[in-house]
C-alpha cells in the first residue's frame, strides 16, 4: 500500500462530518488528509444552529468537535458551498473519496388550508432565527433568502406548536420563557432584544397521538414544569390510556416516565400564573384561519382506527393564535450531482457506501442525517460515522480506491477559482470576537448572526 496520503473530502462540518474526520484521523493503518468543507463560515452545523442556546452543556460538545479539526491531518474549509462554489464532480475529481455529511436542510409541511398565511413558520426557520443562522439574518433584506418576520413574534399573544418531539419542546420553551432567563446564553443581541419584546402568554403544543407516544427526552420535558410564572395545562381525560397506549407504556420506559410527569402536572393545582403551556393530545390542526395573517387554528380530535392509524373524529375546536410553528420534522434535500432518494429524503447507501445507478460508487460515502434521516442524538452520529469510515477503509484495503490525487490539488482548484476558504484560525478569531462582544456588555458571549459580521471577525489582522 502506498504511503502517499489519501485525500478525503467531507461535505459538511456538522457532528457527522467531524465524527467521520475523527474516525479517519485516529486510525493509523492508512495515511489520510481530511478536508472538512462547510458552506458556512463556521463549523459545527446544528450544534451551533439547532441545539437550544439555553442548553449550554450540550452546545459545549463543539469543544470536543473542535479538537478533531485541530488535528494535523484534518483541515477546515469554511465558506465553500459544494454545488455552487465547486460542483460535486469537480470536488470528486480533486480528491480520492468524498463523504457526504450535509445534513437535512429542509422541512416537512402540514398541507392544510391557510398554511401560507404570515404567522405560520417551520420550526427549522424559527430555530435558525434564535440560534443566529446567517440564512435567516441576511446582510441585505429582501435579497431572496429566507428571512423571518420578527414582528410576527413580537406581536403574538398565543402560539400553536404542532408536534411532540424535542424540537417542539425547544420551540415552546423559547416562546414561553422570560427573555431575562435567556440572557446567560450566546443568543445574538438582536434575537434577545426581540424575545424581550414578546408578549406570548399561551403556548399550545398539539400532538395527534396520545401522551404515550411523545418523543420527548424526559429531562427536557421536566424542564418545562420548572419554568417560573408558567402553569402547565393538561386535560386529565387525555391521560387515560386505551389498550394500544397501555402497550406502549408497558414496553417503553421513557414513555412511562413522560406519562408520569404529565399526570403529576395534570394533578397540580393551577396557580393563576401569567403564562400557560398547554398540551393537547389526540389533536391535529386541520386549518389555519385568518384574513391577512394567522388569527386561529382549527383543530380536530383524533383517535386510532382499527388499522392502528390516526384518524379524525370530526370533533372540532378553534384555538386563537397569532403564531403557528410546525415542528413535524426535518428533511434531506438533493445536492446536485449526488444520488438522492426523494421518497426517503436520503442518499441511498449500504453501510455508508453510496449507491449510484444501482451499484456502489467507488469514491462516494455518506453519513449523518443525510444518510439515516433526522433521528437520534448527537452521539448517534458518531457510531454512524464510524460505520461509514469502516467501509471506506475496507475499500482502501481492498484497493477499490487508488490514491491517484496530488494531495494539494483541492487547494489549487479552489485558488484557481478565486475561492478563499476560512480555516480553523479564522474560526478562532470569530470565536474570540463573539466572546469579546458578549463580555463588552455583560454577557458570556454573543453570536454574530450576519454573514458580513462573521467574515469581518474572521479577517486575519496580519494580512490586512
Ligand atoms: C432544533 C434541533 C435541536 C437539537 N437539539 C439536540 C440536542 O439537544 N441534543 C442532541 O443530542 N441532538 C440534538 N439535535 C440533533 C443534532 O443536532 C443532529 O443529530 C446533528 O446535528 C446531525 O448532524 P449532521 O452532521 O448530519 O447534520 P448538521 O448538523 O445539519 O450538519 C450539516 C452541515 O452541512 C453543511 N452543508 C449543507 N449543505 C452544504 C453544501 N452544499 N456544501 C457545504 N456544506 C454544506 C451545513 O452548513 C451544516 O454545517 C438537535 C437538532 C435540531 C434540529
Q: What are the SSEs and their pairings?
A:
Elements: E1 6-11, H1 15-26, E2 32-37, H2 45-49, H3 56-59, H4 61-69, E3 74-77, H5 88-94, E4 97-100, E5 106-107, E6 120-122, H6 123-130, H7 150-155, E7 158-162, H8 166-176, H9 189-197, E8 202-206, H10 218-224, E9 230-234, H11 243-251, H12 253-267, E10 275-280, E11 283-289, E12 296-304, E13 310-320, E14 323-326, E15 330-331, E16 349-350, E17 353-356, E18 359-366, H13 369-372, H14 380-397, H15 409-416, H16 424-440, H17 451-458
Parallel strand pairs: 1-2, 1-4, 2-3, 4-18, 6-14, 7-8, 7-14, 8-10, 9-10
Antiparallel strand pairs: 5-15, 11-12, 12-13, 16-17, 17-18
Helix pairs in contact: 1-4, 1-14, 11-12, 16-17
Quick structural summary:
The chain is an alpha/beta fold and 464 residues long.
Would you identify the CATH architecture of the largest domain?
Answer: 3-Layer(bba) Sandwich
- Give the terminus-to-terminus CA distance: 44 Å
Which CATH class of the largest domain applies here? Alpha Beta
Structural classification:
alpha/beta
Q: How much helical structure, as a percent, in the residues? A: 25-40%
Distinct ligands, ions and cofactors found in the model: flavin-adenine dinucleotide
Q: How many structural domains are formed by the residues?
A: 2
- Average residue pLDDT: 94
Count of helical stretches: 17
At the fourth level of CATH, the homologous superfamily of the largest domain is FAD/NAD(P)-binding domain
Shape: globular
Quantity of strands, as a count? 18
With strands numbered from the N-terminus, the spatial order across the biggest sheet is 3-2-1-4-18-17-16
Radius of gyration: 24 Å
What share of residues are in beta strands?
15-25%
The CATH topology of the largest domain, please?
FAD/NAD(P)-binding domain
